[in-house]
Amino acid sequence: MKLGVCYYPEQWDESLWASDARRMAELGLSTVRIAEFAWALIEPAPGRFEWDWLDRAINTLAEAGLEVVLGTPTAAPPHWLVEQHPDVLAVDAHGRTKPFGSRRHYCFSSETFHTASARVVTAMAERYGSHPAVIAWQTDNEYGCHDTTVSYSQGALKRFRAWLAERYGSIEALNQAWGNVFWSMTYARFEDVGLPVAMPAPPNPSQLLAFQRFASDEVLRYNRMQVEILRRHAPGRPVLHNFMGFFGSFEHHKMGRDLDIASWDSYPLGHLDGMNVASEAEKLAHRRTGHPDIAAFNHDLYRGVVASGRWWVMEQQAGPVNWAPWNALPLPGMVRAWTWEAFAHGAELVSYFRWRQVPYAQEQLHSGLNTPDNLLATGGEEAAQVARELATVPVETSRPARVALVVDYAGKWALDALPNSADFDVHTLQLRWYSALRRLGLDVDVLPASADFSGYQLVAVPTLPVVSPDFVDRLQRSGAQLVFGPRSGSRTAEMHIAEGLPPGPLRALFPGLRVTAVEGLRPGIALPVSLGDTSAQVTRWRDVLDLPAGLTAEGSYSDGHAAVVQHGLARYISGWLCDAGLGAVMARAASAAGLPAQPLPEGLRLRRRGRLQFAVHYGEQAVQLPAPADARFVLGGPVLEAGGVAAWWLD
Ligand code: GLA
Ligand code: GLA
Hints:
InterPro entries: Beta_galactosidase_Trimer, Class_I_gatase-like, GH, Glyco_hydro_42, Glyco_hydro_42_N, Glyco_hydro_b. The chain is α/β, with parallel strands linked by helices. It has 18 helices and 25 strands.
């Protein structure tokens, strides 16, 4: 369990570097990430490389005993490249070229961008690949950030057609797979197919899904190009990428196969205020703590993205950010709490963003561990506190949880292609389901549908439109209790209605069950659902079920239709169920699975790391921890205030 920081030596006078490095080490930081936006300084003109400044920056850090993570600088292509090769620029949905002047202005399908990237990455890796202080490499920065996965460029169009030819083999097969007899959309050749954008009526959802799959593959291809270069010139140095929170536009687990470590950038206040995955009430209640489950969900996701389970927080919010609609100050103690929470979920390293607030350009309102005039800020003091505490808390190895929650990227694209209810947001649904489990004190592993589920006692699937028989098979063999959410099994891989009606292949678990109609529920509509002792509601969405004999309705709508169906080890929830309802269904499934599930006090969350039980408190009122009277604490004590952290031995 180590601490790090993100640092931009090029943004400061060189006279500061040595004291910065010394103060980082004194604070208890061990790892510094640099250079991920420094292309224009590394290669000021095509093929001309300037290493002196970067040599000195790396050596200054190394002399202070710090380890360096080098970022490849490709997220910020320099002006000369754009000028020489305008085709590196991405094109938006209105056909406008995205201009130079910020970052991420490149198109993943541009061959000249691949060539220029390969050149700078090769040069950097040749120079620093065996530098003793450079312990790891980060590819690019936050692929897809600022909505940049997709580009509607000529380069993308050309490659999309080739990708289609590869996937479908013949144009007849494509026409068949997409149902192009509809509206005379039949194509004669792959060269006739365009990009699914800016049409008068909606594009074919099968085409949309194909284009999203293609765009994801393009991101993977670009990353793989960088990884191969780094492996060649920096042998033995782990390669990672810094992913984002609740970001769904490419296949993270597939990229994980090319990486050694997964990392992500955790901004609890920015994510709560700036992403629409939480309610207005939650945004208000947690504006200074962050949502109790948003960072945790992503920790649990990224732990599963690389097979080894190695993961870091590459950027940890350390004070206010600048990019949400409203940027709150963290509650005092929260930077410490977020850091410990990441360690509780198994992180090897938590690296703060950023060393010092910069007084100019786009992020001048974004805090750092130090103020712009170089005094330690509150976040810096809390980082120092964690560094001191780390010396006293043993490092335990994370073990797999007993509960899995399944996420699926292509499934999200499928539902986004035909939402049918304007607020059926897959990330929001995933968060609600995850929260329901976490409020019961359960540890959760967030896994892809391709995972091995053996050893799990409860598997929750918030929604999975495209279900393969193989997935059902693996679930059945696990013997776990299963809970599926609305629209699961509703689509084929090519975006048709599932054969025999939804839930398609899930009928292996629910014999004879059919979804005969679906309904989008506009805001203000809440359908009452009776669920034993719990009175619950369904908003946003419901599947209308035809329930055959032999299946049990555990809950019903007032029109008599089943809301929750149970059969054998499996349950199907037919709508967007409220928190109370989800809590009740999860509690039943957990109890059937033999899992100890107890509702936690408001705002409290638990997480085990090996034999240590951690607790983090996001609520306002002080709480008594569910620890035995004689618990041996290694951090904190039996009562937690808002923003408090504790850890005690389980045995
Ligand atoms: C219009 C069109 C139809 C169909 C319906 C769908 O009426 O003419 O082709 O698209 O909308 O409601
Ligand atoms: C992202 C980026 C950083 C920085 C931060 C600000 O995470 O990776 O470069 O812009 O956001 O919060």
